Amino acid sequence: MARKPSDISNTASQTTTAVNSLVGVRRSDFVKSLGVLVKTAAAQPIPFAKHVGAYAKELVDITKGTSDLAPDPRDRRFKDPTWTYNPIYKRGLQSWMAMRRELKGWIEDARISTPDKARANYVLDIMADTLAPTNTLLGNPAAMKRFYESGGQSVLKGLKNAYDDLRNNGGMPSMVDKRPFKIGENIAISKGAVVYKDEMIELLQYEPSTPEVRKIPIIIVPPQINKFYANDLCPDKSIIRFLTACGYQVFAVSWRNPGRQHCHWGLEAYVRELIEAVGVTKKITRSSRVNVIGACSGGTTMALLLNELAARGDDSVNCYSLFVSVLDGKKSDSEVGLFVTDAAIEASRAHSKRKGVLDGDELGRMFAWMRPNDLIWNYVVNNYLLGNDPPPYDVLFWNADTTNLPAQLHSDYLDIFKERSFRPDRTTEFMGHMVDLSNVTQDGFMVAGVTDHITPWMACYRNIRLLGGEIDFVLSNSGHIQSLLNPPGNPKARYFSNADHPPKATDWLKGAQTHDESWWLRWDKWLSERSGEMKAAPKSLGNKAHPPISQAPGEYVFT
Predict the structure, then answer these.
(1) Is residue 468 part of a domain?
(2) In this structure, what CATH number is given to the domain that contains residue 245?
(3) Each residue of 140-162: pLDDT tens digit?
(4) Which of 229, 285, 318, 343 has an alpha carbon 20 to 30 Å from 42's alpha carbon atom?
(5) What is the DSSP secondary structure assignment for residue 496, as one 8-state letter?
(6) What is the pTM of this model?
(7) CA angle 366, 368, 373 (to 5 degrees)
(8) Rounded CA gap, 557 and 228, in Å?
(9) Residues annotated as part of the active site
(10) What are the phi and psi torsion angles at 356 (to 5°)?
(11) Is the residue at 111 inside a domain?
(12) What is the percent of the chain with per-residue pLDDT over 90, rounded to a whole number?
């Protein structure tokens, strides 16, 4: 059933749980929140006793079989009919649900500050999901059936999977079977070449697939947090392939995966590399202007590029596209954001400074604990209790192909979040100029995701107020990366649009129109109007000054 715009805001607020995964939740802050719960129970015994009593009463009804507690139909953990028809499993589930409900009710009734309530709810959610009956062999009917049907082989396979993860995956359950995927063979296979390379980047140019191309080329600026080939997974969901098929000249930046020796690389260095890439692209295509696309943390870098060019009076960029990127993040955007104290920020900064980099695997674990039910316990059940291999899924393969962040870049991102550097009332200097995105007057196309837990869509909507040009903002019907990989022909594709941009995101959503198709089609129309006239496609890649160095996807993608 199609989701109505009016249903989205609540869904989004319930599923966005990570404003700043570059900080994470410190163990001391987690313990502190537990301490708040204990102190609250001691200082306010009446609300606590009220919900203990309600829990005891519900247990009596559960024992008698008269309780009407039932799981949310959308909760995949409890789809097995055993939870409905087996009295032991049903009572166990209802007891767990009653405990969770009364704990949440107690927090709601407690006289504590709103931030403390939010932190307590986050902690309780993690604890309750950890204690879910589905996370144990005896408590999971599907796992017990598999144990019986396999003669115990499922448990042996699960133990083997757990041992492999302890040795090779930092003790985290594997999310993907990597074996079927080979970069450059069946993933990231669009034809192209590296036409510029230095210590930090490779610039790739892709072969045109139409006899004519638009005059103004496109440069894709990927996040430094992940590899660039999210834009070129399998052919049917490749943004690069889609763009070349629509007649665009496509270039993409591939960042080098930094080591400790690159700890000094910061945002200024990355922006200087983008300025170089713009110059190379202009020379190769003989175009005076380019269009740029930035996603996630790459969007932040792109915004600073636009700011710098505006300050210089350089009109090299004609228009931009900004995908799932929050430029002005706030702690209140999510529950976990409330753990991001100044002390937590400085501890995170000091940690990466000691190591020289913020390790990619460590960053991946931070992301996973922002949504433990989907990104941890789901795979504990699948891999260990059921004894299955994790699924071979290209998006998850890319997600597991982690990269490091240089300590200086990590520190720069923390400063942007802490100081809210993009706000118009701030006086932040960058590369010798003030940060003022209102001077960026090019047209922009923005995309956010309904259930994006990394860059919440309402926070993405605030970007509209920062930049000075005409903006088309669309809301895709999925999560962080799935919102982008949403090609035409996808039966689940849907997005929302509204030409008006009221101050509040909720008001924008109320007036939004639903489109049962891919937003790529809307983007192509928007982009084509800002990419110049058609001309004959180039017969070769690069030019004399910048000849092809190696075939796509390049060499840095393997580092």
Answers:
(1) yes
(2) 3.40.50.1820
(3) 999 999 999 999 999 999 999 99
(4) 343
(5) E
(6) 0.89
(7) 140
(8) 8
(9) 296
(10) 90, -25
(11) no
(12) 75
